[in-house]
Amino acid sequence: HSNQLRQARAMGDYLIVGVHTDEEIAKHKGPPVFTQEERYKMVQAIKWVDEIAPGAPYVTTLETLDKYNCDFCVHGDDITLTIDGKDTYEEVKTAGRYRECKRTQGVSTTDLVGRMLLMTKAHHSNIDEDLDYRKHTDNFGKGPKGHSPWTGVSQFLQTSQKIIQFASGKEPQPEDTIIYVAGAFDLFHIGHVDFLEKVHQLAEKPYIIAGLHFDQEVNRYKGKNYPIMNIHERTLSVLACRYVSEVVIGAPYAVTADLLDHFRVTLVCHGMTEVVPDKDGSDPYEEPKRRGIFQLVDSGSNLTTDLIVQRIIKNRLAL
């Protein structure tokens, strides 16, 4: 989704994103995983978005474009149909006020739902592929016409170009307060956004560095088949957030003196979630605590990756 918004923003000067209500989505697609309020806030937190249009109609009309003073609308190159099988962009296409961007291959909502329900770890990076999993995914992704490139459970392929497109490219300035946060940031959601927003408010000029743990490390402290998104996908999800300036890909679990000195960190923050001890039983935040630069931040949100997975499982029949 972030990549689509990034491409759309590059086509113009000001990006307004229409977000549908739960009711509209339920009618045309099935029950949404996130509530409309969560989705409004999530979209607003993506750095290429200038404004959101809450409760946007499912079918984009010229009337909607005019209402928000838009020259054209953008959609991915996958077709969307209304409940009665009509192209939702027909009217704007005919009027020449439609542009298309490339769909991001290798990841989709369907695919992520599949990973949650299959409970295997084959989506983790640098892990031997599990043959049993291939069998599952082949069934999962196939419609009556055989394999679909959009719904198979696939591996997202990271490139340096994609990281550059998502990265802010901004170096910390001397007057910036460098704040370090670390975690899995799996299925980047409103709980993460609320936490990062609170951290962002702690300083006049915050420069937030997010340390992301490798898949195997996350699996050690989260168990099951976590993380649902591999390190490459999590990197881009976090970089797309307007509060984050930099990401450490595969950060060490323990926040070491080396890391703090290297990035000239002023403050280290953690949310209210449990901190699992390191492999040797030590506290991963021992060093920042010793320096007196550790702070707990309450996001005020109770949403966790676990809860999202529970929502999916609860809805899986309807989905």
Q: What would you note in describing this structure?
A:
There is one protein chain. Helices cover 36% and strands 14% of the residues. The protein has 319 residues and is of the alpha/beta class. The protein folds into two domains: 101 residues, HUPs (Rossmann fold, 3-Layer(aba) Sandwich), CATH 3.40.50; 148 residues, HUPs (Rossmann fold). Strand 5 and strand 6 form a beta hairpin. Keywords: Lipid biosynthesis, Lipid metabolism, Nucleotidyltransferase, Phospholipid biosynthesis, Phospholipid metabolism, Transferase.
Give a brief outline of the structure:
The protein has 319 residues and is of the alpha/beta class. The protein has 14 helices and eleven strands. It has a five-stranded parallel beta sheet with strand order 9-8-7-10-11.
Topology:
Blueprint: H1 2-10, E1 16-19, H2 22-28, H3 36-44, E2 51-54, H4 62-67, E3 73-76, H5 90-94, E4 98-101, H6 109-118, H7 131-141, E5 142-143, E6 146-147, H8 160-166, E7 177-183, H9 190-200, E8 206-212, H10 215-222, H11 231-239, E9 246-249, H12 257-262, E10 267-270, H13 286-290, E11 294-296, H14 305-315
Parallel strand pairs: 1-2, 3-4, 7-8, 7-10, 8-9, 10-11
Antiparallel strand pairs: 5-6
Pathway: Lipid metabolism; Phospholipid metabolism; phosphatidylethanolamine biosynthesis; phosphatidylethanolamine from ethanolamine: step 2/3
Protein name: ethanolamine-phosphate cytidylyltransferase
EC number: 2.7.7.14
CATH class annotation of the largest domain:
Alpha Beta
Q: Enumerate the spans where pLDDT stays under 50 for 5 or more consecutive residues.
A: 136-152
Number of domains: 2
Task: Give the strand content.
Answer: 5-15%
Separation of the first and last Cα atoms:
19 Å
Question: Gyration radius, to the nearest Å?
Answer: 21 Å
Structural class: alpha/beta
Total DSSP helices: 14
Full CATH superfamily name of the largest domain: HUPs
The largest sheet, given as strand count, sense and whether it forms a barrel, is:
5 strands, parallel
The mean pLDDT is 90
Q: Under the CATH scheme, which architecture of the largest domain would be assigned?
A: 3-Layer(aba) Sandwich
Give the helix level as a range of percent.
Answer: 25-40%
Number of strands: 11
Order of H and E elements:
HEHHEHEHEHHEEHEHEHHEHEHEH
CATH topology label of the largest domain: Rossmann fold
The global form is globular
Strand order of the largest sheet: 9-8-7-10-11
